[in-house]
Design a protein that fits this description.
NADH Oxidase; four-stranded antiparallel sheet; 15% strand; alpha+beta; two-stranded antiparallel sheet
Length: 227
């Protein structure tokens, strides 16, 4: 057991105690807000202030992580030329995916959503966020220690980020061309970072649609059991 004399502890001074009624009201309100979150593939080119994106990414950076190493890096891309390069590289991988790399079962699962190898949203949307998982790092920038629970930590941070973007009023698409190693080259990231997710963010196009298939959500009784 670790010697407690070597553990520095800070008071939980910013915690806000709430009544049961207030907690229930806030939880229900958050659920209603998240019910309005939809994956969008048709984006407007309407600009979004960089400060909005930075605030959302800062919220993602508050996610829990293994040993508090915070093993994530967010590449915020707004330059049209870089977005163009990312689109071309992503579509190259997507063409291979739809040409047979994915396998018949996977393609059958995607058919109701109507996706294909064309990804114009990578250029149309004002912002892309390339999320990288860092194999090495530490609690402070510049450290070179092994990171732990990397995928779990980065996944939680991405959940925070998607919720924050939606809360700010933006539409979001999660995109995972495979492989994504081209992002390291395009954005100058080291080999110790693995591309984890490409998030597209912006305003939905005026005529944006959501596939009926995407509106099917499992009820609480199917995803939870009280023990």
């Amino acid at each position: 057991m670790a010697d407690p004399t070597f553990t520095a502890l800070a008071d939980l001074g910013d915690h806000i105690a709430r009544s049961d009624e207030d907690m229930q009201t806030r939880a229900a309100a958050f659920f209603e807000e998240m019910k309005r979150r939809h994956t969008v593939r048709d984006f407007s080119d309407k600009p979004v202030p960089q400060a909005v994106m930075e605030a959302c990414i800062a919220a993602a950076g508050r996610a829990p992580s293994g040993a508090n190493h915070q093993p994530w890096f967010f590449g915020l891309v707004g330059d049209p030329a870089v977005k163009r390069e990312i689109r071309l590289a992503a579509e190259e991988e997507e063409r291979a995916f739809y040409a047979g790399r994915a396998g018949e079962e996977w393609l059958d699962a995607l058919e109701p959503i109507g996706t294909d190898a064309q990804k114009p949203f990578l250029e149309t949307a004002p912002w892309l966020i390339a999320v990288f998982a860092q194999r090495r790092g530490g609690v402070e920038a510049g450290m070179d220690r092994k990171n732990y629970y990397i995928n779990e930590s980065v996944g939680i941070a991405c959940g925070f980020l998607i919720a924050a973007l939606h809360h700010a009023g933006l539409a979001v698409l999660t995109h995972t061309p495979n492989p994504m190693s081209f992002l390291n080259m395009k954005l100058g990231r080291p080999a110790t970072e693995k591309p984890y997710l490409l998030i597209v963010a912006g305003h939905p196009a005026p005529d944006a649609k959501v596939p009926d298939h995407a509106l099917i959500k499992k009820p609480l009784s199917d995803i939870m059991k009280v023990y």
